[in-house]
From TrEMBL:
Residues 48-340 form the Aminotransferase class V domain. Belongs to the class-V pyridoxal-phosphate-dependent aminotransferase family. InterPro entries: Aminotrans_V_dom, PyrdxlP-dep_Trfase, PyrdxlP-dep_Trfase_major, PyrdxlP-dep_Trfase_small, SP_NH2Trfase/AEP_transaminase. The keyword Transferase applies. The keyword Transmembrane helix does not apply. The gene is agxT. The lineage of its organism: Bacteria, Pseudomonadati, Pseudomonadota, Gammaproteobacteria, Alteromonadales. Keywords: Aminotransferase, Pyridoxal phosphate, Transferase. Transmembrane segments: none annotated. This is Serine--pyruvate aminotransferase.
Length: 379
């Protein structure tokens, strides 16, 4: 017999998470997650899921019936939107201004769709004029897909204008709101967004592993008209929906991550208690505080001021500074995590996240103090 390994219990340190996610989770949300587990078909749990749905409708600002949290991370939310909506041979205009736009393209192609990309330099928002030209050049396109808040670059795109363009050209819009939900203005119904997905671990400050999604009536109609079955059984929304809205008649589809949903319930309740507009304003105010401090340190932002995401601050690593050494000292000496650059920005930029519960004054003070120490030491 192979002997059992002797391994000590895992005790993670208490870090301050100012990266691109997961963000800091409040003690209140962590406590919710450690409450006793009950069955996922227990009437009390079914009632709690109904409340999660209502709270998600508030966070998304939508009355969409098909609003729920997929039991998997944000990437599964992305995949759910594409596999349910895009059928083989259908054309999708995909905006690329960072890592996640390119993942959308890969999703389209794996669904057998035809992706027409509208490319931008990293750090730029999506240009509505370029999108309008692509829509005009491809009258057979069925969808417009873009990332609202590009976490790889820190750029915010004008979702309202882009969704209006999609409508003008009879396209359904597919929007990545993984980093935007809860952090910046987002109004699903008012802006006419057809399919949207997010993640629990960014501005909602919940534990990772859940992907809020919402589909408009037009998106649901498109799914119902499919000629081919959705190739993913797990992500087929017509099956998942009967689980989320079956009420007392709810039937088994998969086992919901019961305790993670307790955490999401609590995180969304905290957001509702603060108020969505107040949460957006808090992210903005904290961003300005950080920006003032970084300006004083001479650290430069990548994104032009009007398009900066308050919750994800991408800054150039000052010349002569060792990226990996500084980030590892922040972690070792200050228990502070900031994000590395991704893709084109690897080794060139840092990403300082101020997401959800992390967007607090004391965290900004710690971050500025630590950076000031580190940058002066190395120079
Ligand atoms: C984090 C992120 C994702 C992926 O979410 P996971 O939970 O890591 O799967 C997708 N899009 C954007 C914009 C993100 O920031």
């Amino acid at each position: 017999m192979i002997p059992a390994p002797v391994i000590a219990a895992f005790h993670p340190p208490r870090r301050t998470l100012l990266g691109p996610g997961p963000s800091d989770v409040s003690p209140q949300v962590l406590a919710a997650q450690s409450k006793p587990i009950i069955g996922h078909l227990d009437p009390l749990f079914v009632g709690m899921m109904d409340e999660v749905k209502a709270l998600l409708q508030y966070a998304f600002q939508t009355r969409n019936e098909m609003t729920l949290a997929i039991s998997a991370p944000g990437s599964a939310g992305m995949e759910a939107c594409f596999v349910n909506l895009v059928e083989p041979g259908e054309k999708v205009i995909v905006c690329r201004n960072g890592v996640f736009g390119d993942r959308m393209r890969q999703n389209v192609e794996r669904c057998g769709g035809i992706a027409v990309t509208v490319d931008h330099a990293w750090g730029e928002p999506v240009d509505p004029a370029a999108v309008a030209a692509a829509l005009a050049a491809h009258p057979d396109a069925r969808f417009l897909a873009f990332v609202h808040a590009e976490t790889s670059t820190g750029a915010l795109s004008d979702a309202k204008a882009l969704c209006a363009l999609a409508k003008q050209h009879q396209c359904l819009s597919i929007v990545d709101a993984v980093t935007s939900l809860g952090g910046v203005e987002l109004r699903v119904d008012e802006w006419g967004i057809d399919a949207i997905y997010s993640g629990s671990q960014k501005c909602l400050s919940c534990v990772p592993g859940l992907a809020p999604v919402s589909f408009s009536a037009a998106a649901v109609a498109k799914i119902k008209q499919r000629k081919t079955p959705v190739q993913s059984w797990f992500l087929d929304q017509s099956l998942v929906m009967s689980y989320w809205s079956g009420g007392a008649k709810r039937a088994y589809h998969h086992t919901a991550p019961v305790n993670a949903l307790y955490a999401l319930h609590e995180a969304l309740r905290m957001l509702a208690n603060e108020g969505l507009e107040q949460a957006w304003a808090r992210h903005k105010a904290m961003h300005l505080l950080l920006r003032n401090g970084l300006d004083a340190l001479g650290v430069q932002f990548v994104v032009a001021e009007p398009y900066r995401l308050p919750q994800l601050n991408t800054v150039y690593i000052p010349p002569g500074i060792d990226d990996v050494a500084v980030r590892s000292r922040l972690l070792q000496q200050y228990n502070l995590e900031i994000g590395a650059g991704l893709g084109d920005f690897a080794g060139k930029a840092w990403r300082i996240g101020l997401m959800g519960y992390g967007a607090r004054q004391e965290n900004i003070a710690l971050c500025l103090h630590a950076l000031q120490q580190e940058l002066s030491v190395v120079i």
